[in-house]
Amino acid sequence: MSRRIVVRHLLAAVALCLVVAGLVVLGAWRLAVSDAHRDAEASARRVATAVLAPLAGQDFGRPDRGRVLDHIEPFLAAGTVQRVKVLTVDGGTSTVVFSDEPRVEGRPGRLDPDLAERLATRKVTVGAVPDDNEHRYENGLPGTRLEVFFPFRDAAGAEVYLELYLPVDVSGTARHTTLVLLPVVLAGLTLVLAGTMPVSMVAAGRAERLLAAHRHGLAAADGARREAARQLHDDVIPNLAAASLLLQQARARPGDEHTLSRAADAVTGGLRRLRGVLADVVPAGTDDRVGPVGGGGLAAVGGDGLAAVGGDGLAAVGGDLGSALRTLAERMRDGEVAGPVAVAVTVTGPDSTVAAAGTADAATAATAATAAAVRQIAGELLRNTFRHADASTVEVTVVASGSSVTLTVADDGAGFDPRRAARPGHVGLALVRQTARERGGRLTIVSTPGAGTTVTVSLPT
Q: Which of 60, 71, 162, 364 is most buried as measured by Cβ atoms within 10 A of its Cβ?
């Protein structure tokens, strides 16, 4: 189970890391784009400060190309700008009246509506270079770039725009930001995930145990029904059928005391077996009412065990596990053995004053599912003892602590060798061991032929 939990946790961690990594990359890219726009505008303003005044002295209806190039050539040579244009705008149409690339001069072009709207405000505008035929010469330059527009009036009073193309490295900036941030973020996330691993294992383990307890409860209920049917078929019905035949014989022969005595014995045996079946199907002290609860809460339920109140609530059979076990032991004894067998049941815990549904049962430290398992296991161990041990004394002890419940069933009977395989059909101890293992507990058997048997089962609460 723990391996499965670790694998699930790791898969979730990998998925989370991938999502976080994707978000970091996306954030780094958006940051790089924002920085590129800001840096491009700052560089363009420095260039514009140097060239706008001399350019405003030109009439761009018939510009002096040589003098204009003298002003912008130093920035082109230094790589500060990659392309310079001066253009006029008429609605959604622009015309390049000057450029360091003569092939684009005089050509009208369509402006993007959003760009035309921003240029109409006569403010500095920054944008990406369109990927179209009109900008094929700019897009053919190495690297990536942004275009920045500065409005001004030329010597003739015409409204024109200085368009500067500035190189930017969005990919490089995003890559650098990612390489700086991503390791730090992933390292911190890894530490958090590693720190939550124990919590995840505890939560998953608890859910697994609850599921196993639920499955075991269903299996136990089905097993109880099958066992009741078997006992009715094998013992009770034959006894009552025999009693019926004997009574018919006695009616035909009035005064036949021997036949009546045999019929009475058959009926008595049938009643004894019926009490045993009843003790198995309906545990002593149970009903279908939910008792008073408070805080952790206790609940009494019918059927084959206990029910939790409020998820992690505490429950006891009929509110008193000790009384339930004592009544169960006595009824099973009466149904299994004919001779006298002394049965003692003791329930202790860290706080003998714990109140549950009006009682003071220390075993209420056990959760509902654990208490149900204790009753079920105790019933199976007592059944084995009464059927096979030939004991005169049986002691049942339950010790509840804050983290576990320990059940001990000891007898002074015939004993056996635990190392030997069980005889065919004798599966009681195997079922107890399986039940304990499914609940995360353990079973210990101490027995010697002729010296009695002690079986101890420890279960986590």
A: 364
Q: What is the CATH number of the domain that holds 441?
A: 3.30.565.10
Q: How far apart are CA 86 and CA 95, in angstroms?
A: 9
What's the average pLDDT block by block, 10 residues per block, for the chain (461 residues)?
Answer: 72 87 90 89 92 91 90 91 91 88 87 86 89 87 91 91 92 86 86 81 77 76 73 74 77 78 78 68 43 30 30 38 84 77 85 34 53 86 88 92 89 86 59 84 91 93 78
Phi first, then psi: give them for residue 80, nearest 5 degrees: -65, -40
- Tell whether pTM > 0.85: no
User: What order do you get walking across the sheet with 404-411 strand by strand?
Assistant: 342-348, 393-400, 404-411, 453-460, 442-447
Longest dimension (CA), the chain: 149
Q: Are residues 163 and 289 in the same domain?
A: no
What is the DSSP track for 289-341?
------TT-----SSSS---STTT-B--GGG-HHHHHHHHHHHHHHHH-SS--
DSSP H/E element including 436: helix 428-438
For residues 444 and 437, give the distance between their C-alpha atoms in angstroms, rounded to a whole number: 12
- Inside any domain, residue 349: yes
Residue 394 inside a domain? The answer is yes
Structural domain boundaries, residue 355: 282-460
Query: Could you tell me if 164 and 289 lie in one domain?
Result: no
Distance CA(308)–CA(303), nearest Å, equals: 14
C-beta separation of 291 from 357 below 8 A? yes
Among candidate residues 168, 203, 218, the one where a domain is terminated: 168
Residue 21 is which amino acid? Answer: A
CATH code of the domain covering residue 77: 3.30.450.20
